[in-house]
Each structure stands twice: as C-alpha cells, then as structure tokens.
Amino acid sequence: MHLTLSPSDLAFREEVRAFLKSSLHAEVIRRSLTGMHPPNEDDRRWWNRVLADKGWSAPHWPIEYGGTGWSHLHTHIFEYECKLAGAPELRWQGLRLLAPVLYTYGSAQQKERYLPAILRGDEMWAQGFSEPGAGSDLAALKTKAVLDGDHYVVNGQKLWTTEGQYCEQGFFLVRTENCDRPQKGISMMIIDMKSPGITVRQIPMINGDGSTCEVFLDNVRVPCDNILGEVGNAWSQAKFLLSNERTSSADIHKARADLERIRLIASKEYKHGKPLLDDPAFICRFTGLRLEVEALEWSVLRVLHEAPSRHPIAACASVLKVRGSSLQQKLTELMVSTMGQRSLRVYSRDEAYAASSDDPLWPAHVPGVTADLMYLRACTIFGGAMEVQKNIIAKLAFGF
Ligand SMILES: Cc1cc2nc3c(=O)[nH]c(=O)nc-3n(C[C@H](O)[C@H](O)[C@H](O)COP(=O)(O)OP(=O)(O)OC[C@H]3O[C@@H](n4cnc5c(N)ncnc54)[C@H](O)[C@@H]3O)c2cc1C
Questions:
Q1: Number of structural domains, the chain?
Q2: Are 238 and 186 in contact (CB under 8 A)?
C-alpha cells in the first residue's frame, strides 16, 4: 500500500472538491458544521438527492445497484472531503446497513422496490434490533411475529431506535419461532413505519435532542413478502449487518475532520498571550491524537482492502469499533478543553442554527461542540458496547 496519493488520486480529489464547492450552499454547510445531533433532516435529504443525481450517493454499493465502482481509497477520499467541506452526513441505516443485506440476501422484488428509494434518500430507515433486555444479548429479543394467512402479526417493543421519528421504513428483528437455541427462530422483516399499530416515542438525550426512540408494535400486520432472507434464519444476516456497522463506527472521516477543527480553534484561542497551537502541552496532546487517527485510518483502509475470507472479519470490525469510538471521545474532549469557557454554554438547536459568523463568541461550529461531546458518550455503546466488542475480539482473534 502506498502512503502518498498518486497523480490520479489527486486529480480525483480535485474533482470531488470542485463538485462540493459548486453544490453545497453556505447555509447548509453552516448548519452541518454546528455538529448538532441529529443533523438537519431537510438538509440531509436534499444532499442525498444531490449526490444521487450525480451518481455518488452510495460509492460502496456494487455498480449494478447504483454504486460508483471507485476504489476503497477513492471512496475514502470522497467521504473525507465531504466531511471537511461540511456536507450533511447521509443517514447510514439504509445506505450502509440495510442495503448490503438487501442486495446480498433480498429477493428480486425487494431489491427493485427498496434499493432505488434508498439510493435517492426518498425513504429513510430505522434499525429495529435492540429491546429492553436485549441489547448486548440481542438473541434474547422477544418481539414476536405470528403467521396469519399471508401476513405476520407483530407485537413487542424496540428501544434506542435511532431517528425513528423521521423514518418511513424499518428493518426489524423479530422472533417467528421458539427454538432450542435463542439465535434460531429470528427473522428480519421490513415494516412500514406508518403501519397501524406502530407508536414511535422520542427519548430525550443528554445533549438536548431526541435522536433515539422507543418503538411499540401492537398487532402490526406485515405482509409475508416483507421477510428478508430465510424465515427463522436471520442471525447470520444480523451479524453481517453488525460487522458493517462496526467498521463504519470507526468514523475515521469525522476523526480527521475533528483534528482540523481542533487545529483551527487552537490557532484562535490564546494562553498567556500566545496561540494555544504553540503551547507545548497542547501540542503533545494534539500530536498524540493525530498519530492515533492516522494509525486507525490505515487500519480501516487495510481491512477494507483485504479479502474478508482471509481474516476473522467480525474481529477486525470490532477492533475498529473499539479504537474508533474511544478516539471519537478523546477528540471531542480535546476540542471542548481547547474551547475552554466557550464550551460551557448550552445552545438550543434554533440558537445553534441562527448563530452567525459575527457572533461575539465564535463562528458556526461552537454550539455543537459540547452537544457532540455529550452525544458521543454513547458511541462506546451503540453498534455494540465496548466490553462486548472486547469479548468478541478475545474469542475470534485469540480463541479465549
Ligand atoms: C445513541 C444510541 C443509539 C442507538 N441506536 C440503535 C438503533 O438505531 N437500533 C438498535 O437496534 N439499537 C440501537 N442502540 C442500542 C445499542 O445497540 C445497545 O444500547 C447496545 O447494544 C447495548 O445494549 P444495552 O443498552 O441493552 O446494554 P446492556 O447489554 O444491558 O449492557 C449494559 C452494560 O453491560 C455490559 N455487558 C453486557 N453484556 C456483557 C458481557 N457479556 N460481558 C461484559 N460486559 C457486558 C455492556 O458492555 C454495558 O456496559 C442505540 C444505542 C444508543 C445509546
């Protein structure tokens, strides 16, 4: 692997930069750089459509379904440039989690019905896996689907469903059969979130937003055609999906963009009359994190390049998740301490979006920094808790 960009990589980067410059509006960039969670819903739907028109909304999909055919490196360059430019983050549940399951395990009708709408962002997706009492121990899930003619009748409760309030569709794990092993008898099912019997309730979060939900399913009728893959055999699909989620959870593009943001803040903050950027204690902390981000970046690229069959891919995904999520937390901690007192003020979303660059406190990205720090307390939990990831690594990589 080469550690420098080739002339064609650099030309590709220029093409991406030119596209971002001509397509993104200043208002959208400003809202997205605040770092508020969840990002502005209208902005991210709009941006999904803009990227889809360009053919760039799902670079990692196979070309036949709308992917770009780019190398992993070009996809990586593209995603980093988007982040740096302040493009709204696309919702990944449909694009990154469900779509690979759909094009790997779905029927021809399911692919035709759902993939184009995911590609354009016309339908957003909720991930209905976790339940009260079934998070780390996902196989303990109790939401039940009982066959009734050509439909299933679904009853139960899902918990921590990210941005469920905005989603048109959901992919749910449900129990269709009670078997000797809890991993058996679980099915994956597509459920229209507007179906009668579904109630979505937002959970207030510490950062002031309601980015996760409880979803109650009360006699929800779901056509049998909405089962994804084999009935009762969804455990391997769920593991496949979670491995993709954990690899993405390294969120390396955000980490690199955060480093740039910290550098910018430190160049404007002063300590004893000098920019913080020149302070030895700051340099030491910043450089340590920079090295960690670089090491993780090359690990992500290496895992993406290597054939999954050569490695215990679930263990690799868990390593990236453990390293990436703890790094996210360290970066937001450094950002908040670099901002000093400015980080103490709590902004509402309206205030955050209204703040202009002549705000006496700071330009647009100040309001979301503390909100981001609070939100990211959860990143060592979502997508699989830290301790559980370490158990997976110990078992798959070291055989304990
Ligand atoms: C912000 C946020 C967004 C989320 N979004 C979604 C979503 O969209 N869809 C969805 O389905 N889920 C979502 N989740 C749920 C997430 O996947 C679960 O919270 C996670 O899997 C942990 O499960 P739990 O909350 O039930 O905690 P528990 O499983 O009860 O764990 C509690 C603690 O015990 C530890 N623990 C548990 N088992 C073991 C073990 N065997 N060995 C050692 N330690 C252990 C855990 O590490 C943790 O520290 C989200 C969670 C959060 C916080």
A1: 3
A2: yes
DSSP state of 233: B
Give the residue numbers spanning the domain of 220: 125-232
Structure confidence by residue, pLDDT tens digits, 292-329: 999 999 888 887 777 554 444 678 888 889 999 999 99
Report pLDDT digits (tens) over 203-261: 998 887 888 999 999 999 999 999 999 999 999 999 888 877 776 767 888 999 899 98
Binned at pLDDT 50, 70 and 90, residue 348 comes out as: confident
Our CA angle for 266, 208, 203, nearest 5°, is 140
State whether 63 and 174 are in the same domain. Answer: no
Q: Which atom of ligand 1 is nearest to the CA of 164?
A: 8
Quote the ligand 1 centre to 251 CA distance (angstroms).
Answer: 19
Report the nearest-CA residue for atom 33 of ligand 1.
Answer: 385
Q: Does residue 196 fall inside a structural domain?
A: yes
What is the 347 CA–ligand 1 centroid distance (Å)?
A: 28
pTM above 0.85, yes or no: yes
pLDDT in tens, 40-70: 999 999 999 999 999 999 999 999 999 999 9
Query: Residue 180 falls within a domain, yes or no?
Result: yes
Tell me which residue has its CA closest to atom 11 in ligand 1: 129
Nearest CA to ligand 1 atom 7: 161
207 and 275 fall within a common domain? no
**CB of 378 sitting under 6 A from ligand 1:** yes
User: Is 111 inside any structural domain?
Assistant: no
Q: Is 129 in the pocket of ligand 1 (CB under 6 A)?
A: yes
**What CATH number has the domain bearing residue 226?**
2.40.110.10
Q: Are residues 191 and 321 in the same domain?
A: no
| CA torsion, ordered 7, 10, 15, 21, to nearest 10 deg | -150
Q: How far is the CA of 390 from the centre of ligand 1 (A)?
A: 13
Residue 304 falls inside a structural domain: yes
Give a three-class secondary structure readout of 96-148: HHHHHHHHHHCCHHHHHHHHHHHHHCCCCEEEECCECCECCCHHHCCCEEEEE
In this structure, are residues 229 and 243 in contact, taking their beta carbons and an 8 Å threshold? Answer: no
